[in-house]
Amino acid sequence: VTKLTQNEQEAALESARQGTLLAPFNARYHFAEANLLAASALPAEVLGNYAQAVKLRPLSAQYLEGAARAAGASGSAPLQGVLLKAALQLNRADLTQYKAYAIWLLDQRRRDEALQLHRFSASLDDTDESRARHYFYNSRLQGKTKEALQFLQDRFKRFGSRSSAPARTLAWAYDELDNASKAFELLEKALTLRPDDGEFQLYLADMYG
Questions:
Q1: Distance from first CA to last CA of the chain, Å, rounded?
Q2: At what angle do helices 129-141 and 95-107 cross, to 10 degrees?
Q3: Are 114 and 105 a contacting pair, CB within 8 Å?
Q4: Residue 112 CB neighbour total at 10 angstroms
């Protein structure tokens, strides 16, 4: 779009606008119009069109991610936020969506919201240790280590007899805090909960080795 002459841009923009009038529930027309407006440096109007397109859906999260990257590259942070949030809403099971939107929130200095998003993501899937570790890591960066550690401890209490994974994550957190003795104490306790877990025993053997 940026390679078009001004007259060509105006003609393409008018065509896209006609499309949105004729088919207001087709989000692709709104995206086409928004892209052209972005090339014309009209961010406020761009944001309105993208927001409208997001409401219309159905669009894939991947499509929205690509649009978000383009918005970020063009320096339109509000537009990028709209798109990242929309992508997250379309695919709540994907950890990368939470990470991308949380990073955007941090860039906007909305740190508390970003951390809440990480915690929410970790709470969505009790079996996904990467989410829990990601929450702990970001909590440390923001000086909220105590809250995150309590979160991991609660996970171990609830699910420690069902799987060794929460124990491993909590032990990792203790190790990150330079508290190896606490980590090994926890692992010994976890073993009593799962004495027949061969995989966990191999993990412990590797740790002690």
A1: 60
A2: 10
A3: yes
A4: 11
Higher pLDDT, 115 or 37: 115
Using an 8 Å Cβ cutoff, are 97 and 88 in contact? yes
Q: Measured between alpha carbons, how far is 13 from 175 in angstroms, rounded to an integer?
A: 57
pTM: 0.69
The answer to whether the CB of 143 falls within 8 A of the CB of 135 is no
114, HSE (Cβ side, Cα atoms, 13 Å): 22
Residue 76 CA: distances (Å) to CA of 50, 127, 166? 12, 36, 40
Residue 208 to residue 149: CA distance in whole angstroms: 23
- Structure tokens of 157? 């209490």
Q: Per residue in 5-18, pLDDT tens?
A: 666 666 666 665 56
Measured distance CA(13)–CA(78) in Å, rounded: 22
The counts of H helices and E strands in the chain are: 12, 0
